[in-house]
Amino acid sequence: MRRERPGRLLREPGMTEPATTQPAASEPGRPDPALTERIRAHYTARVEGGGGCCGPAAGAAATEPDDPLATLPSFGCGQPTVFAELAAGETVLDLGSGAGLDAFRAAEAVGPEGRVLGVDMTPAMLARARAAAERLGGGRVTFLEGVIEALPVGDASVDVVISNCVVNLSQDKAAVFAEAFRVLRPGGRIAISDVLRNGDRPAAPDAEAWCACIDGAEPAARYRRLLADAGFVDIAVDPPPAGLAQGATYDAAVRARRPAVRPATAADLPAIANLLADAGLPREGLRDAATRLYLVDDGAPLAVVGFESYGADALLRSLAVRADARGRGYGGALLRHALNEARSEGAATAWGLTTTIPELLTRWGFDEVGREALPEALHASAELRGACPASARAFRRSLEP
Ligand SMILES: C[S@@+](CC[C@H](N)C(=O)[O-])C[C@H]1O[C@@H](n2cnc3c(N)ncnc32)[C@H](O)[C@@H]1O
């Protein structure tokens, strides 16, 4: 569905709307509470049938006439349960569950052993969804009040995150994807229908157009970037349809996966050494007490990363992705994982020495420094003592929050 920005702005003379039309969208920590309230009021009006200030009218669900879900209104822009590949017994979380339609569709797909949670911030939507849950949920569908930027859901507790036409409404999409990543179990996946934009978002978004799923819509490249920054891999975001006008919005399907990263065991070391050899990386010091290694595998290691721990300093090492798995985001995701692990071990500074991945390190916030900046503690490293060529460039990044 293509949407146009509404012509009437909210800041007409004499109107008493909140002064909230320029949200600092997707800048963590700077959402505008007045816009959040406006979105809530908008969707309260929509579900209570009074009509919203903008946007297409809520459609009845696209269902067969005798389908019990036919009574539920849809405010969505797609059908994530169609491409989420839900399996029996899975736990599903619906971000911005509205009146519950996709949650109930998911419940049908995961069957009696499965479970579905919906989170929404609008009490009127929750009331509608909860009333339906008594009729349709079979005790397996629960609706929670909350915001998708700070989910009321435990770590690594769901298999699949779905969402339908909601993420574009968030003013802090980085927080939404960080939360989705947190609540997914390693290996879990997201399947999102959302409104995207062909081109950049307006510099001065309009609140009415934001509520109508227009001005918060991001271009596909930025959507991908936000997902990658959160740690997702295998990211697929529909591009704009051919011929779509610059600045117009479109309905897209988005898929991604939380990689199943695990610490390496002694049994993994021979295969890791082979992967490092294939990548032309040093294998010295893999068994040293200071060395931490993490990998994703599919029977054989698909990607590996490590760091050497020297108290407040951590030296990144051994970042390698198998040739057939390159281009799927594993390099960045594993680098991010290693940085988090190093931070949780108490490191305040991460260091890298590389001839091959300076761009990746720069993208993840490292600055190039002279080799003389490397702290004394790192000189114990096998990597530094000879395995790493003198031509390797040195990089540094703070791990402070
Ligand atoms: C366009 S409706 C979509 C509802 C539902 N997914 C559907 O397809 O019918 C957007 C929904 O997202 C909710 N919402 C918007 N921003 C939210 C946020 N930051 N946290 C939680 N819910 C939010 C609204 O209350 C509303 O129910």
CATH class of the largest domain: Alpha Beta
- Residues in β-strands, percent: 15-25%
DSSP helix count? 11
CATH architecture of the largest domain: 3-Layer(aba) Sandwich
Let me know the number of strands. 17
Q: What is the element string, with H for helices and E for strands?
A: HEEHEHEHEEHEHEHEEEHEEEHEHEHE
> How would you sum up the major sheet?
8 strands, mixed
From the alpha carbons, calculate the radius of gyration and give it in angstroms. Answer: 24 Å
The best one-word shape is: elongated
**What is the CATH homologous superfamily assignment of the largest domain?**
Vaccinia Virus protein VP39
SS class: alpha/beta
Short description:
The chain has 401 residues and is an alpha/beta fold. It is built from 11 helices and 17 strands. It folds into 2 domains: 225 residues, Vaccinia Virus protein VP39 (Rossmann fold); 137 residues, Gcn5-related N-acetyltransferase (GNAT) (Aminopeptidase), CATH 3.40.630.30.
Topology:
Elements: H1 33-47, E1 59-60, E2 73-74, H2 80-83, E3 91-95, H3 101-110, E4 115-120, H4 123-136, E5 141-145, E6 158-164, H5 173-183, E7 184-197, H6 207-211, E8 218-219, H7 220-230, E9 233-237, E10 249-257, E11 262-263, H8 269-278, E12 291-297, E13 301-310, E14 313-321, H9 330-344, E15 349-354, H10 358-363, E16 367-369, H11 383-387, E17 393-398
Parallel strand pairs: 3-4, 3-6, 4-5, 6-7, 7-8, 14-15
Antiparallel strand pairs: 1-2, 7-10, 9-10, 11-12, 12-13, 13-14, 15-17, 16-17
Helix pairs in contact: 5-7
